[in-house]
Amino acid sequence: MHLVAEPDSTTEASLEEETYYRINVLRLQRYVRENIDTFDDPVLSKEIVRLIKEADCLAKDGDFYLANAWLETVWELLDPAWQDIEEEGEDYVPGEFTVSPSLPFMAQTSKSQWSKQIITGVDLWQQEFNFRFLQNDSSFSEGSGNPFTGVRLNFDYDSGRGSRFQTLTAFKYSRDYLSGEATARYSGRIGASSRWRIENRFEGTSFYRDFDLKYSQNLTSVAIAPRFGLFTLELEDEFIIRRYAGSDSTYPNYFGNSLRLLTKFSLSAASLLGLGYRNVVRMHTDFDINDYKENRFEFDWVQAFGSSLGLSLADELRFRDYTNAPVDHFYQDFWENYFRGEMEFRFTPGVAFKLNGSVSNREYEFVSVNSLPDYVYWEVEPEFSVKLGPHWRVGAGFHYDKQTHQKLANRFSNVDDVLSTFSIQFEDYYSYGPMLAVEFFDVNGLMFSVRESFLLRRYPNTPTRDVAEFNLYSDTNTNSILMFLAWNISRNWQLNLLANVDDDKSQKDDSGDSRNTLVGLEIGYSF
Question: CA 293 → CA 41, 98, 370, 373, 395, distances in Å?
Fold first, then answer.
């Protein structure tokens, strides 16, 4: 379950909750000033004021975690249709939809708004290899730069009577590809406490430099969310279809449907519970061996204990069935359980301890020559953070993860089957190392974040550990740096920068080192 944030929020989950709270307050004050003359329900207006005062009291006590939860409730009551259209990834899988019901105490007049932006920038990529086991020059390097330009057009019409119509159109032309998308959303209210939404998104991309790949995709979704006191029910159906110019086994045409039912319970002012079910069907017209059906069961719980401790737990259990795949095929039926937990304890308003962790377990139904082994993966990240002044936050922590695979030999009845079937060894591994994070956020329009980790990955059980030859399972030390910058230079100009560097150093002379660098720079002009 995700708390519904103020719709045009520019914050991210990793930002300090206090900064998030202050931004929410500023925007809430702006919204109330602009619409104060349209509040015609005194009971609900009084409830809004009460929630804001309680959020303010919690913030003064340093509990910004729960204060933000109260402000989220305020935004739900104001107008959930305020939410902007979200962009989905290229390999979008029908998934979660969050809509919050509201009550019709607003008597707004209709209004419309256009937003136009021209963008330009470049994507840079470079990969370097160093094979120390070669006698001659062992350094190899490859990379590319992809300059681009494009335009984004947004239209937003609010009827003032509970319904809203939004569109997003974007085109991007670069040296390597041409892409475009068009999204339309129509949302509104039914009665006093229910909301509905109809949305359609079409997109297309054509790669023409390094390889010939063209595809188009259309996604249509319908959703309704009635509310009954502290209980909310969300029902959504999504239909997706993707077609390639040259469909093959690697890029097959497909269509799919996702039906999702989610229930939310406000157990108390400091507790939220969500239970959900999702049915996903993916069908391939030319390569039905890839068809599958999937059932997912979801659980989410968010709880605040006083003003210092917050807890969030989530679990997803899914069962996938490849309906047409033979037993000896690479695609195998499996079940998977993913559990995630987050805990935060505040010593003072500026000093906190966070503990994040997850466990993932996957088991396949059959085993054959193409089987993948069952595995268990888990990770844990404790972190201490300190706020320095009104804008800076510094965090230091530790990362540990481990993945273990079931030995395929344990699933065969005799040694001959093992020798004839066992072809690829998946090695267990673990990684550990320190992390450092620095964040800066200013409400005037500058956000900066840099995160560095130094991880030591070890393969304790590989039979090639001490073999003097190149192998895939060599112990490595990896230094990773991720940097993000978003800056509203002026009212019209925006700058975005994303950079990532992964430097892998093998601990064996017979294996190779590598460095991967990605940089994305975008400049936008709004008018």
Answer: 47, 23, 21, 21, 42
Residue 429 contacts residue 402 (beta carbons within 8 Å) = yes
How much of the chain, in percent, has pLDDT values that exceed 70?
Answer: 70
Q: Which of 238, 162, 156 is nearest to 193 (CA)?
A: 162
Reported as a single tens digit per residue, the pLDDT across 205-259 is 998 865 678 999 999 999 998 888 778 899 999 999 999 988 888 889 999 999 9
Strand partners of residue 156 = 113, 166
9 or 16, which is more confident?
16
Domain shared by 421 and 311, yes or no: yes
Taking the C-alpha atoms of residue 198 and residue 112, their distance in angstroms, rounded to an integer, is 19
Encoding tokens for residue 330?
């690479």
Of 426, 460, 482, the last residue of a domain is 426
Of 480, 458, 471, 482, the residue nearest 509 (C-alpha)? 471
pLDDT in tens, 282-291: 999 888 888 9
Quickly list DSSP for 267-286.
EETTEEEEEEEEEEEEE-SS
Q: To 5 degrees, how large is the angle CA 185–CA 190–CA 192?
A: 125
Stretch (H or E) spanning 119: strand 111-131
356 shares its domain with 422: yes
* Residues 467 and 526 occupy one common structural domain: yes
Integer Rg of the chain from CA? 26
How many domains would you assign to the chain?
Answer: 3
Distance CA 518, CA 59 (A): 39
CA distance 110 to 63: 38
Hey, how many other C-beta atoms are within 10 angstroms of the C-beta on 316? 17
CB burial of residue 34 (10 Å; 0-12, 13-18, 19+): exposed
Is the same domain home to 327 and 417? yes
420 with 444, same domain? no
Residue whose pair of structure tokens reads 């303010």 in the numeric block: 56
Residue 73 lies in a domain: yes
The answer to whether residue 100 is domain-embedded is no
- Its pTM stands at 0.74
Query: In the structure encoding, which two tokens stand for residue 169, read together?
Result: 């159109």
Residue after which a domain boundary falls, among 396, 426, 456? 426
Domain assignment present for residue 90? The answer is no
Beta bridge mates, 417: none
User: How far apart are alpha carbons 265 and 469 in whole angstroms?
Assistant: 58
Q: Residue 82, Cα to own-chain centre: how many angstroms?
A: 21
What is the residue range of 311's domain? Answer: 306-426
